[in-house]
Amino acid sequence: MVLKSSFTILVVATLAVFSSYTPQAEAHSWADCIDWKFKKSGKQDWSDKGGKCTGYARRYPLNKAFGSLDSAWPNRHYQQVHKNPSSALACSNRKAGAEPGSDETRANPPSKAYGGKYGKMTVTSVGDTLCVRWPGKNHAAKGQKSSKVQINLSKSKNAKDISQKELLKNTIAQLNFSNCNSGKNEDRRPCGGCFKVPVRAKGIYLLQWRWMLNKDEWYTSCADIQIK
Ligand SMILES: *[C@@H]1O[C@H](CO)[C@@H](O)[C@H](O)[C@H]1NC(C)=O
Ligand SMILES: CC(=O)N[C@H]1CO[C@H](CO)[C@@H](O)[C@@H]1O
Predict the structure, then answer these.
(1) What pLDDT, on the 0 to 100 scale, is given for residue 21?
(2) Residue 139: which region, alpha, beta or left (left: phi > 0; alpha: psi -120 to 50)?
(3) Do 76 and 101 touch, CB atoms closer than 8 A?
(4) pTM for the full model?
(5) Less Cβ crowding at N or C end of the chain, within 10 Å?
(6) pLDDT tens, residue by residue, 101-116
(7) What angle do CA 23, 29, 35 make, to 5 degrees?
(8) Could you tell me if 195 and 225 are in contact, meaning their C-beta atoms sit under 8 angstroms apart?
(9) May I ask which residue range the UniProt record assigns to the signal sequence (predicted)?
């Protein structure tokens, strides 16, 4: 018994040493692009060479290296509160959350959060395919359990942001976080997933990318998309 518990302590201590060696194990992801277009149709290539971004999240800074915005200030990832995450603030306001992110509150009009130093707003149509891209941030490596990405699309046209609870009634896709290009740099591996734009009247809608890393640990990115 004594032997067994000291063995357990040794294993735990060894694991602790090894996990502290993992570089940037705590890096977290965000939606890098909302409307990724592949260069070659039929081939999902999420690398910078494999396509281009034609629609972004709110106030998304341009010309930054892919996957680098977690070390920007403020960091791009927004971790919702862990207690009742279904009632958490849906889009980062730079203050709320277990880890506040950048300012992804709705601009008035929404177009003010796009263009110039920011990326363009997504313009799409019902039935079109949208492909969203994100960095793996060491959480899409082989042997890691694959986590899920939710895509929630508001039904409220040209309206104020709806609550997280309301967004959860409008999950339009569940994507596999680990759907990535191959590559050695696990932190910067490009990943993504595609879905069809559901039926909505013409207008501008809140689209939320929401990733669960651990139980009750959710990260979100918010974008306005114009459905034509
Ligand atoms: C997610 O994608 C990865 C990489 O392609 C794959 O290994 C894994 O089985 C997928 N997980 C699910 C739940 O589909
Ligand atoms: C998992 C989930 O939240 N699914 C919801 C997706 O959205 C539809 C309505 O658009 C709901 O009926 C589902 O419960």
Answers:
(1) 42
(2) alpha
(3) yes
(4) 0.85
(5) N
(6) 999 999 999 999 999 9
(7) 140
(8) no
(9) 1-27
| Domain 28-227 CATH (choose: 1.10.10, 3.30.230, 2.70.50, 2.40.128) | 2.70.50
pLDDT bucket at 73, cuts 50 / 70 / 90: confident
Contact 9, 105 (CB under 8 A): no
Ligand 2 atom closest to residue 171's alpha carbon, by position in its atom list: 6
Closest Cα to atom 2, ligand 2: which residue?
A: 171
What's the CA-to-centroid distance between 58 and ligand 2, angstroms? 24
Chain centroid to CA 226: 19
Task: Quote the CA–CA distance of 129 and 133 in Å, as a whole number.
Answer: 13
Tens digit of pLDDT for each residue in 24-35?
Answer: 446 899 999 999
d(CA 225, ligand 1 centre) in Å: 28
